[in-house]
Design brief:
Length: 478
């Protein structure tokens, strides 16, 4: 068998000083599987700590779900928050994460997140990542703490820094297939495949799985969350659960699988916009095909996804008026209703009655729903669902009364799975008895336990960066 073409000759990430042990096999201090944010945070940190790294990415380009994400990261106590007079702290972040997760999270992982979040924010900035001013509207946060980046640029920045160290060897179009263990059960590498050739990538200090979740594997999602069969599945094409399966095969445990959730606000048929639109966070109400509200619209968009997917046809409408459309920060993609209007995705009418006819819900019911809701806004009390704010604990409710009126058809999209391998706070993967599987680490979306029952905006990308670095430090034993 010919040796694999390990990387394209012009691949700038190929570290020419590392040569295969024999025709096929390669080795380094650490093998990282997956070229998204977690993988590159891990590879760069490991390289900065002096380790040689092999990073395997199954697709022809880096980025995974990270690169196509909304770019929102949850950090607390940053310079950007201080500049906006937002008082925040690691302890407040800890409390919010636990509350949003309904106490189902692993407290040790939440602690690991908050203890390393601020240094990771600074580390990302040093690596050339640029953050925009803190976003006001976000779910699950008692104070605004979403720090926004260009997600593809962020992965590229870390990859560039990793390349500059001369210690990271990136192999594109290379799939990790199985974990390899020595006679003592320690994970010492992976078997991998590239262009039909298989070989072994050995890691002296072990293997870090950073291969993302499995949102592009609807069959696997069905196994844990059949209620999302009719959802839309959006994420990195390579995110089909390879790492999870590899780890399960050697006895790893997993958790939070029942908490897979879709995100509300995805147009059911539009294929051009990956991202949800959350008019509800600007004051819209959500109504089902009967024209009735069914939920407190201020809750996390993941819980809104749960609520939507159980409604008839798994699709509902966000209903709002002209002032709501124009309010808020349209620079934020999930709030930019005007853009969706220009794209022809928002249904518009001069009256609520005419809007109801267009979206084929009973007009008298929708009129009654809107009038009743406006009464609740005036009274400052929503006895039906307890909505008190626009989003989480922010924003005053507003009446829906000034035409034109609008409807945005919305379903739930599974953007990530947020559940996965059991790890300890050092990112060692744990087996079904809770023991460390020696030599095996995990980071990013394939880790379960941080989010618990629900998800705080920005905590998945945050988890990728923070846990990627922790895994590196543990694997390099520094
Ligand atoms: C549209 C969208 C918007 C989102 N917005 C946000 C947001 O604003 N904030 C937030 O916190 N989260 C958001 N998320 C979730 C977040 O992007 C992910 O949870 C996070 O990026 C996961 O990072 P990761 O590095 O673990 O995985 P990924 O970035 O998905 O990287 C995993 C990589 O592993 C590769 N891989 C898989 N299997 C193998 C294998 N066998 N061998 C080699 N390589 C393999 C994949 O090809 C992929 O490149 C969003 C997700 C989507 C899809």
């Amino acid at each position: 068998m010919p040796p694999p073409a390990f990387a394209k000759p012009d691949n700038p990430m190929l570290n020419q000083s590392q040569t295969p042990m024999n025709n096929n096999d390669i080795q380094a201090d650490v093998v990282v599987v997956g070229g998204g944010l977690a993988g590159f945070a891990c590879a760069l940190q490991a390289a900065q700590d002096g380790a040689d790294v092999i990073l395997l990415e199954k697709l022809g380009e880096i980025g995974g779900s990270s690169a196509m994400s909304g770019g929102c990261l949850a950090f607390a106590g940053t310079d950007l928050q201080k500049a906006a007079s937002i008082e925040d702290s690691s302890e407040l972040l800890y409390a919010d994460l636990i509350e949003v997760g309904k106490h189902e999270n692993d407290p040790a992982l939440v602690r690991a997140y908050v203890d390393h979040q601020l240094e990771t924010y600074d580390w990302l900035k040093q690596a050339g990542v640029e953050f925009s001013p803190v976003m006001e509207t976000s779910s699950g946060q008692s104070v605004p703490r979403v720090h926004t980046v260009d997600p593809a640029d962020t992965v590229r920045a870390l990859a560039g820094r990793a390349k500059d160290t001369g210690k990271v060897r990136l192999l594109l179009n290379t799939s990790a297939l199985r974990l390899i263990r020595d006679a003592h059960g320690t994970v010492v590498g992976v078997s991998a495949e590239r262009e039909g050739n298989t070989f072994t990538a050995s890691g002296k200090h072990g293997v870090v799985l950073a291969s993302g979740g499995f949102c592009k594997n609807p069959e696997l999602v069905h196994r844990y969350a059949p209620q999302y069969d009719d959802a839309v599945f959006i994420g990195g094409e390579g995110n089909v659960g390879d790492g999870l399966k590899m780890a399960l095969l050697i006895g790893a445990d997993c958790r939070d699988m029942i908490y897979i959730k879709g995100t509300y606000g995805k147009h059911p048929t539009d294929e051009t916009n990956h991202h949800s639109l959350l008019a509800v966070y600007k004051g819209a109400i959500a109504v089902n095909q009967d024209g009735k509200r069914y939920v407190d619209e201020s809750i996390s968009y993941k819980l809104l996804g749960d609520a939507c997917i159980t409604q008839p046809y798994g699709a509902t409408f966000q209903i709002f008026d002209h002032p709501i459309m124009q309010s808020g920060d349209n620079a934020v993609r999930i709030l930019d209703i005007e853009r969706r209007l220009e794209e022809g995705l928002v249904i518009q009418a001069d009256t609520i009655e005419a809007l109801a006819e267009q979206i084929e819900v009973p007009a008298h019911v929708l009129i009654d729903t809107v009038n009743t809701y406006n009464g609740y806004v005036d009274a400052g009390h929503d006895p039906d669902f307890g909505r008190a704010h626009l989003v989480h604990q922010h924003g005053e409710l507003v009446r829906i009364e000034t035409g034109p009126f609008y409807a945005y058809p919305s379903t739930a999209a599974v953007y990530g799975t947020y559940c996965g391998l059991c790890v300890d706070a050092a990112m060692h993967v744990l087996d079904v008895y809770g023991d460390v599987i020696p030599g095996l680490y995990a980071a990013g979306e394939m880790v379960g336990g941080l989010h618990g029952a629900a998800y705080m905006t920005g905590s998945a990308l945050g988890k990728a960066a923070i846990f990627g670095r922790i895994a590196a430090r543990s694997a390099t034993r520094i």
